[in-house]
Amino acid sequence: MELMALIDMLEEVVDNSPKMLLSSKVLINKNQMFDLIKEIRIKLPDEIKKAEWVNDKRDNIINEARIEAENMIKSAEEKFNELVRECEVTRVANENAQLIINSAREYAKELRLGAKEYVEIMLLETEKKLNDSLERLHSDMKQM
Averaged in consecutive runs of 10 residues, what is the pLDDT profile of the chain (144 residues)? Predict the structure, then answer.
């Protein structure tokens, strides 16, 4: 993450700046700090775009899972109707078709839940990283 590297550089500048005598304050190169802050401001929208991309990706995964589930259910129902039409062993056909439908629904449910869980984890991680970055930035700015 470029933003994290910039924040690390910001911390490094503060850590490596000469300390004032008898004080915990440091002398910081103003231009160097402003350059880093400017870079952070430039990169921050990119990080937000990445988070939005993850959110869009989550929506796409969920939609694809829903479409796949609908197709599987439709396919299972068609198979069910085909087995019933054949009428050789109607009871067995009904049982098999119902199992296929139930299996398809369960699989679709698992797909949706898995996709949603994955995307939620990614969003939470991105949110945490962004919050951490902002907290460090605010902390560094307060110290300046």
Answer: 83 89 87 90 81 88 91 91 73 85 92 89 91 88 83
The model carries a pTM of: 0.37
Q: Measured between alpha carbons, how far is 132 from 88 in angstroms, rounded to an integer?
A: 66
Question: What residues contact 4, with CB distance under 8 A and at least 6 apart?
Answer: 129, 133
What is the rounded CA–CA span in Å between residue 73 and residue 106? 10
Handedness of CA 111, 114, 116, 118 (dihedral sign): negative
Helix (H) or strand (E) holding 21: none
Q: Are 61 and 28 in contact (CB under 8 A)?
A: no
17 touches 140 (CB < 8 A): no
